[in-house]
Amino acid sequence: MPRAIANLRTFKPPPTNYYKCPLTRRAAVLILLFADRAGDLRVVLTIRSSNLKNYSGQAALPGGKADTLHETPFQTARREAFEEIGLPLEKEHLPTGYEIEHLTELPANLAMTELGVRPCVAYLKTPEPFAGNRSPNAARDLLPTLDAKEVAAVFTAPFFNFLREKDVDPTIRDQVPGEWYKGSWHSWHETAWRMHQFHVPVTQSTVFLAGGDNAKASSPAAAAAAAAAAAAGGIPQQDERKSTSDPPAPSSSSSAPRTPPPNPPTPSPTSEPTGPPGSKPDRTSTLQPPLPRTFYTPPSPSDSTLQQPRYRVFGMTARILVDCARVAYSTEPSFEHNSHFGDEEMIERLLGIGRLAPKRREGEVLSREVMERARRGVKI
């Protein structure tokens, strides 16, 4: 874990187009990491409220739009995290001994809503035991006290697992139904684009519902896994413990990358979409082959939805987490993925053709035609 934090701390992001975007097109998200009792990193995520205009009911990193041109990405991400989940802005408002260190920023990503999204990575430092807290535990001391104002739930996920195709924890793998990872190749930005889907197992100790009613937050299967872990001494046994606690230095290569070949295969129109049986693909999507419309519109976060044994993390959020884990652990994923970080090049091209204007035009969509014009540098 210390080396993963050190790798992030020393990461120098390339020049960004974020500051070329007008205020209305700027957004930032917070990747908040903390160490669990085993010393492994976990990341804080949310389930967005059903009454939000965009991405309601989906898993997301805390974050949102910039307020002013003078606001830095970190200031935006921290302010939004305070507004969404109540993460204190000032050190004195954190539990005694805890600190939040800003580690680095990652290349900007392009959201479907045509925002330049800057990921900001921070580390929640857990204090050494002291008289007032003999056994500091971030998940116990801070997360349950968060005020989930704009989200249906706050939950945490094992950070290293975003580099693996299966649950790293064998207890979870054996006792929680469902797969950890699914992925498929599509065409977006006129290039091959990997759609990642992670299904994060949740228990009463890793998910916190809005309103504080956490008794509903664990399914029987997830509860059984948590009980089994507790019976084993309270710390889940992980078959990749060395990988998570002591990642290689940035200069090392611990696994061969599984990125697209030089000429990625064109996704077949008959490729099987990921969605409920009988669901129809969205033919207007810039993603080809298109995914079912229901893929992006999960059920509203009702009690039954939040009781599921796994929460789905996909799309831009999933890709940001994969890229961040690649930097932290200097390790390539065990699944196929895009080799480049973020969407800086596409953001620059869209700005170059007059797209991403301060005011969005009515009916404006990021169509395949727009993407093709951006690729060719043809102004709209």
UniProtKB/TrEMBL annotation:
Keyword Hydrolase belongs to the record: yes
Location of the region described as Disordered in the Swiss-Prot/TrEMBL record: 230-308
Keywords of this entry: Hydrolase, Magnesium, Manganese, Metal-binding
Essential cofactor(s): Mn(2+); Mg(2+)
PROSITE patterns, per the entry: NUDIX
Domain Nudix hydrolase: 24-208
GO BP terms, alphabetized: coenzyme A catabolic process
Residue stretches of biased makeup (Pro residues): 258-279
Gene Ontology terms for molecular function: coenzyme A diphosphatase activity; metal ion binding
This protein's name: Nudix hydrolase domain-containing protein
